[in-house]
Amino acid sequence: MNTQQQQSDTLVQITDLRFKRGSKVIFDGINMQIPRGKITTIMGPSGTGKTTLLKIIGGQLKPSTGSVQVDGLEVPKLRRRDLYTLRKRMGMLFQSGALLTDITVFDNVAFPLREHTDLPERLIRHLVLMRLQAVGLRGSRDLYPAELSGGMARRVALARALMLDPMMILYDEPFTGQDPISMGVLLELIKTVNAALNLTSLIVSHDLAEAMSISDYVVIISNGKVIAADSPKALRESESQWVQQFLNGLPDGPVPFQAAAPDYATDLFDFEQRS
Amino acid sequence: MNSRTTEILVGLFMLLFLGAMTILALKVSNLTSLSGANGYQVSANFDNVGGLRVRAPVSAGGVKVGQVSQIIYDSETFEAKVTLTIDEEFNQFPTDTSASIYTAGLLGEQYIGLEPGADDEVLEQNSEIGLTQSALVLERLIGQVLLNK
Amino acid sequence: MIDFLARSGRRYLDALASLGRASAFLVQLLGALPSLFTRFSLVIKQLFSSGVMTLSIILVSGLFVGMVLALQGYNTLIGFGAEESLGIFVAKVLVRELGPVVTGLLFAGRAGSAMTAEIGLMKATEQLSGLEMMAVDPFKRVYAPRFIAGFFALPALAAMFSAIGVLGGHLVGVELLGVDAGAYWSQMQAAVEFREDVLSGLIKAVVFGFVVCWIAIFQGADCVPTSEGVSSATTRTVVYSCLMVLGLDFLLTAIMFSV
Questions:
Q1: C chain contacts of residue A87, beta-carbon cutoff 8 Å
Q2: Distance between CA B107 and CA B109 in Å, rounded?
């Protein structure tokens, strides 16, 4: 059964996922398939728990109920050792880059290799410089993370995530707060890396245009539910009011402009009556 | 920070630690004389030991030759029985050596002074010193002065 | 009133829960220690930041504390004509009490707070999550080296504090106030026991090192990952460490020196 699933087109399979933080329901029964070898983007308004979803897929958080399978493995039920083996095959790119601040760019990129392998230093140097060349930062290898711009830090983090030749890379808000040039660089990198290394990319973002432009598949989440999941083209032609509101950035629609409140007139009137 | 500099400074830190421990062990406390506790033991009975305490020095001619290792009350002789540990190297005390309790200064610590005799035989493990002179007890001394007046 | 009761009740429950988390954390931390045998260089790096960086404040404070002790002790002892015993006074106070305790307090303020802030910052900038996602265990890579280094550094610093304090006492007592140098050192040597005084002082320092590092690392790892959370965790580290050092000192003194 395992081998069958490994050959299937779906790399990540999420079934009826529920997650609560305190008394707040973040996910209320989510179903999702993430296809192998493609770029998938998960979108949704701020505060819908997109980053939480990444952490659940990476096994850092456990869902209340439901199943999360990555490459046929049930992530929440994995033992620590197996989880770590799985994580070596997953790269994750954090919003801030999450580089270790006390070592240089070179050492950061070399870090996974030095932790997990016993390769000779010469070989490590080769491998690191290859990855740094790929993200265009070979010349910055002796800088410390504090000396990098946000976009450069993310590129270094990408080089680091690629170090162990993963099967999948998770991107947490890769486009937030980037100027147009570094945005373009990142878009191009994600695309080429995905194609060249035959990876599966999972992007969490609310930068609509950029995400739509590189994704093969888009999932929109809101209020703990999956609203729509389809290719970007199909979504643009969708008749759902909700999807149209989100894609076009309309201020009012199924997601109301006003927070839930008593009727406006009664609210005002009540006060005048009392005083 | 260069990792080599770090290593050197940490090495220096360890040296300082060793230095501090040496000062504490040799200069501040008396680790050497404690480790030299392998001596022989002799006992002496005193009428009154005054303020003598365990680990008080035992000296001969003003030089420290050992220390008091035990003080008990002997309920058969009604005297205080003091066990002295004398360092191995000083094994030539004649058997008629006398032991007295002295005070270093007016209010200082009390110690035992040994006065060697002239006998041919020497003190050995578990020998007993017969000639003893008790501690000078101030109240008793004052009493004597008053009575003799 | 009910509200007040409910609130204070919740605070006690919160404190209890955090104690529970801290204990579980300690178990995991101790479990990660054996992995350090293969990467001792990590410990050396941490020995630098918790030991060497704290050295200057320890040496300067130790010197001054020793000098003050000599001054105060001299003024008291001379009333009994016993100023020759100054060495005993300075050494016993330093070795038994002030060495370990003041070092513990200074260590909590200097190295403990730095540990909490560093780990908290790593958490806030997702470095810890990043390590986990690279299949690197933060307990082995981040917490355990800091724990071992601090656990070792505190007793070492306490020994240096006591040693330099005794020298400071010599400086004031002998050089300045004119106590006989021979009396200062020989009386000290006769009265201070290595096992009873020096070793029990060191045992205290070992216990303080354990507790301060535990608190500091746990507070860093458990903090709310924002700049506000990190700063309040740092404050908590210093406050809790100081209270624990003083409280444990009383307990240990009662156990060790009450005959």
A1: 132-135
A2: 7
DSSP H helices, C78-199, are 86-92, 99-107, 113-124, 127-133, 138, 144-170, 181-191
Contact A169, A89 (CB under 8 A): no
Is pLDDT above 80 for A257?
A: no
**Average pLDDT value for residue range B98-118:** 81
Q: Is C236 a residue whose pLDDT tops 90?
A: yes
Answer yes or no: do C135 and A116 touch at CB < 8 A: yes
Beta strands A90-93; A168-172: pairing state: parallel
Question: How is domain A37-48+87-274 classified at the CATH fold level?
Answer: Rossmann fold (3.40.50)
DSSP secondary structure letter of residue B61:
T
Over the stretch A165-205, which tens digit does the pLDDT of each residue have?
Answer: 888 999 888 888 778 888 888 888 888 888 888 888 999 88
For chains A and C, count residue pairs whose Cβ atoms are closer than 8 Å. Answer: 53
Structural domains counted in chain C: 1
A152 touches chain C (CB under 8 A): no
Domain layout of chain B by residue ranges: 1-35, 37-137
Q: What is the ipTM of this complex?
A: 0.81
Best of C46, C160, C197 to disrupt the B interface by mutation (most B CBs within 10 Å)? C160
Which one, of A161, A170, A196, A135, lies nearest residue A40 by Cα? Answer: A170
* Chain B residues lying within 8 Å of C156, measured CB to CB: 13-14, 16-17, 20
Q: Which chains touch C (3 or more CB pairs under 8 A)?
A: A, B
Give how far C1 is from chain A: nearest CA, Å. Answer: 26
At residue A2, the pLDDT reads: 45
Chain A residues 46-85 within an 8 A CB cutoff of chain C: 55, 58, 60, 84-85
Phi, psi of A118, deg, nearest 5 = -115, 30
Give tens-digit pLDDT for B122-135: 888 888 888 888 87
Domain interval for residue C79:
2-257
Nearest CA in chain C to A95: C126
Domain ranges of chain A: 37-48+87-274
Buried b or exposed e, range C183-213, using 16+ CB within 10 angstroms: bbbebbbbbbbbeebbbbbbebbbbbbbbbb
Contact between chains at B17 and C160 (C-beta distance less than 8 A): yes
Task: List pLDDT tens digits, range A79-97.
Answer: 888 888 888 888 888 887 7
Q: pLDDT at residue B106 above 90?
A: no
From the candidates A78, A111, A165, which should be mutated to test the interface with C, based on the most C CB atoms within 10 A? A111
The shortest CB-CB distance from A58 to any of C133, C137, C141 is to C133
The DSSP symbol for A106 reads H
Facing residue for C91 by CB, picked from B3, B28, B107: B28
> Looking at residue B140, what is its pLDDT?
76
* 3-state secondary structure labels for all residues of A124-167: HHHHHHHHHHHCCCHHHCCCCHHHCCHHHHHHHHHHHHCCCCCC
Tell me the C-alpha distance between A78 and C144, whole Å.
Answer: 24
In chain C, count H helices and then E strands.
Answer: 12, 0
